[in-house]
Amino acid sequence: MKKIIFALAFSSLLWTSKANTTKVVDSKKDEIEVNINLTDVKDDQVLVSVKAPKINTQIITYSLPKTVPGTYSVDDYGKYVADFKAYDKKGNLLTITKTDDNTWSINNAKSLVKITYLVNDTYDTEKGKGFGKDDVFSPAGTNIDVNKNYMLNLHGFVGYFQDKKEIPYKVTITHPETLWGATSMIDKDASATVDVFEMPLYSELLENPIMYSKPDYTTFNVDGMDIQIAVYSPTGKFTAESITPEMKTMMTAQKKFLGKINSTKKYTVILYLSTMSQTDAKGFGALEHPTATTVVMPEMMSKDELVEQMKDVVSHEFFHIVTPLTIHSKEIQYFDYNSPKMSQHLWMYEGVTEYFANLFQINQGLINEEEFYSRIAEKIQGANAMNDSMPFTTMSANVLTQPYKDQYLNVYQKGALIGMCLDILIREKSNGQRGILDLMHKLSNEYGVSKPFNDADLFGKITSLTYPEVGEFLTKYVSGSTPIPYYDYLAKVGITKTTKRVPDGIFLQGQVPFIGVMSEQDKEIFIVPNKELHVFYTTLGLKALDVILAVNDKAYSYDNIYELITDSQKWKENDPITIKIKRDGKEQTIKGVVKLPYIDSEGLEATDASKATLREAWLKG
Structure pTM? Predict the structure, then answer.
């Protein structure tokens, strides 16, 4: 999963991931038949009916998930269910009791034939508060926009009967003929208005999201893998074709970097672009599955910014093919959707994945060394801002509760740096011949999709496959409370810390905005009050509450505020600039030059030529 925060005055943008569960099943078992009706939607609710399997107990429970693997949050999907009913074969209602937010107990269950319920979507209720703030993370959420878009993360629509998760599922979806379902599943029905999907296990069904919308997709093949890019853009601003070249370049490089770790034959990237209205998605990022990634982004982003964010977030999700989708513990393999026990090893599932998402780009020539070092330096700064003495394994095992929940985002900072340090250490001990990717190859051979490891045994297994020093690192820095001396490990490959003056953001500095929007209806961008304005504003004589109408003859508003931010990142010191503003209701034009705010920033630089060979093996090996 990837959740990255990028905030403006009016919203928080975040990112996310998910795990696989596979068991041998008896094909002679009952089949659970589910019908989802997208053609007769009333009051923004979708009707779901479930044909019950044979039940031999007087009482049975039916549950929707409290959480799903990879989201690392309690979301209570049962809260979005209404009008739950259970019937016998004569159509009589059976007595039901709702025992918690996600579970219904059904009496006289031996006579149960069918249950029905209505599902509300999660996008309608999002407040944009961010991770851990009551919102369902949008890529794990659901959308019901009649005759336009249906985002079916199936854990929001389909539940399971007690002790029946290993029974095959048959899901029939009726939908308008104008809408097409993007998914990696195979439709068993040739009809233009009915899709039928079959999965051997509940867990495998949940790993296959579907997005229904007007068809907009591309397909291409990379080294034997069929890849599908599907896009929903409400205004038509973006198309699948417009982002496919960059996605193809990136995923080709990823496949080359990964080598033989991958058995997936089809992979679908589902991109939902949000209007950011009050009833639309506000949690931005992605959620990975074995054969798919769901991505949610704001449609107002510029093309360049969207493509860059897609490259980073989709590459992260794609690398989850390695872990936890191939290499994972029993906590993930046998995931309990309503009483989950979390694994200790988020450092690997999310951290190593995030490290790979950056390493492959320098390894395959997509970015240069300076950019790679800059990313590592940013992660060090981010990790230092978190609780650096909290044992990572303890945080991971308790991530659903406080105070550990607040440290989750460190998996993308310190977690990635753990992967980096292990990579450098293995390179050093093997004289550059092996790194952490080699370790992951070995672990995938030792375990695999259907063979989980015991949580407590992983460090010992890694040590046996590498070096005693690797085991000592894991014990001291990952399960222990000792902060990692990152610069000591970087010195092994000739990298040292530097400090330099660099430009800071003009309109957005970190999470601090200098501009805002009064409302979605007003759409005018104004300079926020009660803030000390930096040199860019003072040089041009700009004031708090000035409305920015245009810059260099390009008009800006709420609809393209992201473009204003990304365009400003390209401005250079002393560039000529013309800004059209409105002050006290009167329009005026200001001409001048750009003066950038500067800050001291810690960076990284290759300074030790004697370590060049090991450094080359680390970056390019």
Answer: 0.89
